[in-house]
Fold:
Amino acid sequence: MLARAALLLVCLLAAFLPSIAPCADGPADLILHNGKIVTVDKKFSVHEAIAVRGERILAVGSDEAVLKTNGENTKVVDLAGKTVLPGLIDSHVHATSACMTEFDHEIPDMETIRDVLDYVAARAKAQPEGTWISVRQVFITRLREQRYPTKAELDQAAPKHPVAFSTGPDAMANSLALQKSGIDKDFKVSGTGYIEKDPQTGEPTGMLRSCTRYLKIESQGKRSTGEQRLERLKLLLDDYNSVGITAVCDRDAGDDDVEQWAALRDAGRLNLRVALSRSVDAQGPLDRITERIRTIADDPLRKPNTQLRTIGIKTYLDGGMLTGSAYMREAWGKSEIYSIRDPEYRGVLFIPRDKLLPIVQATVDAGLQFTAHSVGDGAVHQLLDVYEEINRATPIAKTRPSITHSNFMSYEAATKLAKLGVVVDIQPAWLYLDTRTLVAQFGYDRLRYFQPLKTIFESGGIAGGGSDHMQKIGSLRSVNPYNPFLGMWTTMTRRGRLYDGQLHPEEALSREQALRFYTHNNAHILFWEDQIGSLEEGKLADMIVVSTDFLKCPVDDIRGTQVLQTYLGGKLVYERK
Structure:
């Protein structure tokens, strides 16, 4: 009896004292020592060593204490002073489609209108006459000219091919693309969006605002097999590991996407953790939408799992800031950049409030996390208002309702999050890439609460970092770069590419906050905070060894940080050669 009491006392002490190894049988399988173990626990403590048994962390503490868990078969690694961080988490990717972007041919970087037109001309030479040329997600905010290519320019580059320069729901089409799609001066739009027409002739200018759906684009290029798609996805996941990413959320997972993730898991090739935010089309009848929500809630992938799990649903509430269609509380104003002619134009709202409310209610009732693509402050406020109304009768915090993107906010919106238990999934790379154009469009003052991370943190809200990775493999060459160290540097400096100065530096994060943004906070958003997101005894041993002293190096060195090793559940899944 006394022996059992003594053992229990040791176990209790181990839970509170990091220098004492947890009570468990056998030595560690892996020890990393003589380094800086940045735990990102509640105290943000830093230790010398960490020990792992199986998939989980056995001990974190001093070299002397942790090395006591050494055994005959323990692998002991001398860090030589290097820093260890928790595995990084990306709260927003589209991996299954992004990895296939260049399956047919390599797509060059396009930074100017000339680059776009040269690419279109090159594709015209490579493809048979009459076949479609599609340029996708080359955002005008990131082109030096800050505008769409014109219909005439696309006509000149490929006069015998239909061409669509599309940026999500918006597009610029050339003459043959309009003709093949039956879009002329008499064409009528049903639902959201409009076809821009020349005020003199009434003919379409080629600008389709939230009307890309009307283009009858036919896909070109070689077709992939199921195995080829899995190989491409695995190639991307390996690259995620190379920049320290050990978990992601697929933020718009269709049924085919889920099948691919499950196939990798079943084959034992899934080298990161995947949360699924399932795709729901909110444009159909309400009863069909709620039926889809219930079906997702009953899926076996809803069961708790640390490898692959469905956590909620995703839909689209408004357009985008990259395309000029985010739904704003104030008018965008006339814009040559975005081809906006109506001075009262506020963007596009896809779901009216009276339909949004029952969709969110059904999601909460099903125990799922609701999130919607909500870029403009008009969309953000509407979604928060709906959350607030539902919360009066049905507490919503346990489902961790989310706002995806949440770029344009207000002080009221940023400080309301914590009160409701609403989380936000934010992409700092957009601040890095798009600040120059946003300031040109809106002015500096109107961007006061653009990605207001400091305000969110200080008010107790939980924001997590994502990339919205859409296209290409390569953490810095991808459309929306997924390198988390660039993301963290951006949150700390508020500096943008090709932009002089800082965008409201009063919203900059500290190093500790920036690291929480990509670790513990994202783990909470994805319902894994008891498993990952910090380096604590009993948690899964997802961790990375990095080239910089993250807490002390010059801040500009952070963006160039290299990952030396990545461990998933104590298993080495990446090592820099």
